[in-house]
Amino acid sequence: MKTYFAYGIIVIGLLGFFYFNNQTEIKDSQVYQPLNEEINSIKNTSNEEIYYAEIRGEVRFPNVYQIRENEILKTLIDKAGGLTAEADISEINQAALVEKNSLIIIPKVISEDFSEETPTTEAGVVKNYIYVDIKGEVNNPGVYWVKASSRVFEVIDLAGGLTSLADTSSLYLSEIVKDGSSVIVPKLNEAVDITVQIMGAIMRPGYYQLPEGSTLEALIVKAGGLTVKADKTMINFHLALDDGDVITIQEMIVIEKIYVSIKGEVINPGVYYVEETISVIDLITLAGGLTEYANSQAINYNQTLILGSVVLVPKIFVDDYEPITESNGLININTASLDELQTLKGIGEILGQRIIDYRNEYGYFQSIEDIQLVSGIKASIYEQIKDFITVG
Questions:
Q1: Using one digit for the tens of pLDDT, what is the confidence trace for 315-345?
Q2: Residue 85 domain flag
Q3: Could you tell me if 331 and 376 lie in one domain?
Q4: Domain match, 159 and 179 both
Q5: What is the CATH number of the domain that holds 327?
């Protein structure tokens, strides 16, 4: 009887062992493994667009990770190795969708065991973490929950660092930030372009854009430089330009020179190389002035000089002047006065003066026929006077 009782206890023990062992296996098989289930649920869609997100703070491997559209925060945390033991997810929705190119920060649990370095506010309330607002030229501006006693450069680093346009010259990077404070990273001052026009003696006239504060010299260089005719004496190369300025580069006034001749009653008659704008009175002065016999009343001081001009200063005739005449009563065309020449048929004041000008320039006539060399005396006039003139 005792033997059967012992066998019964053994059977009951074996049945109990198999029952409880089976329940443990069932329980273990029902443990939830989110990472594996989510990974297995992701379809291999090679055409799906890939985005990036950065995760920092209390994860094992903070970094930038690839994410897919509609990916949740829990998946991103798993990619980063999961949460650390000090992670505070009390205010974090791990089922929230992760936005592309976003920054996720997992905060740390605030410990009640404050260290000696933890700052105390004026009200005596001790804080381990504070809120700081960072704006301007950082990659991820926003409000950050940072450790108390953090410095400006640490907050900048937390916000993704500086942009290429950041100007930190006015920032105190080692300054300790305060709760509720705002850090603003300014932008570099960019040069504002101005538009100016340049014309005149310049290689490439037109409109040009230059940095604000540019000088005329910089504009001339950009326009290809000056032409050879530019009057540099009139240019202020250091002139500061303003938007909308119109600059005209003046050309040099080039004075041409010409050859002219002066004859008659001047001290030094001859050919002179003079500026084309010279006046008759200036030419007379250049020739040494008038002689005492010059007829100043007969000089055309307003005469326009051109290349090859001949200025003739006539001689004054006194009342007792007696021209050389031939005994036969003929007019000597080499010595006759203007009045005597006008007694000839067809010879007026103009032609008479031309005869005198000719002999002053070329000397005495060699024959009476030479009078036809005078401008305006044609063969018809010569036929009328040939019997009344002589060369003496």
A1: 875 544 444 444 467 899 988 988 889 999 8
A2: yes
A3: yes
A4: yes
A5: 1.10.150.320
Q: Which residue from 175, 179, 183, 98 is spatially nearest to 133, judged by alpha carbons?
A: 183
* pLDDT tens-digit map of 245-261: 999 999 887 778 888 88
Parent domain of 202: 198-249
- DSSP tally for the chain: helices H, then strands E: 9, 14
pLDDT for 17 equals 58
In the predicted structure, residue 19 carries a pLDDT above the cut 70: no
How far is the C-alpha of 77 from the C-alpha of 53, rounded, in Å? 11
In a domain, 261, yes or no: yes
325 and 392 assigned to the same domain? yes
DSSP 350-380: HHHHHHHHHHHHH-S-SSGGGGGGSTT--HH
Give the strand pairing for 270-275 and 50-57. unpaired
The residues, any chain, with a CB within 8 Å of residue 5's CB and separated by 6 or more, are none
CA distance 364 to 391: 8
Domain membership of residue 192 (yes or no) is no
- Give the C-alpha separation, 110 to 88, whole Å: 8
Please give the C-alpha separations between residue 239 and each of 41, 201, 217, 220, 388, in angstroms, as whole numbers: 73, 17, 8, 11, 78
Query: Which of 373, 388, 392, 259 shows the shortest CA–CA distance to 323?
Result: 392
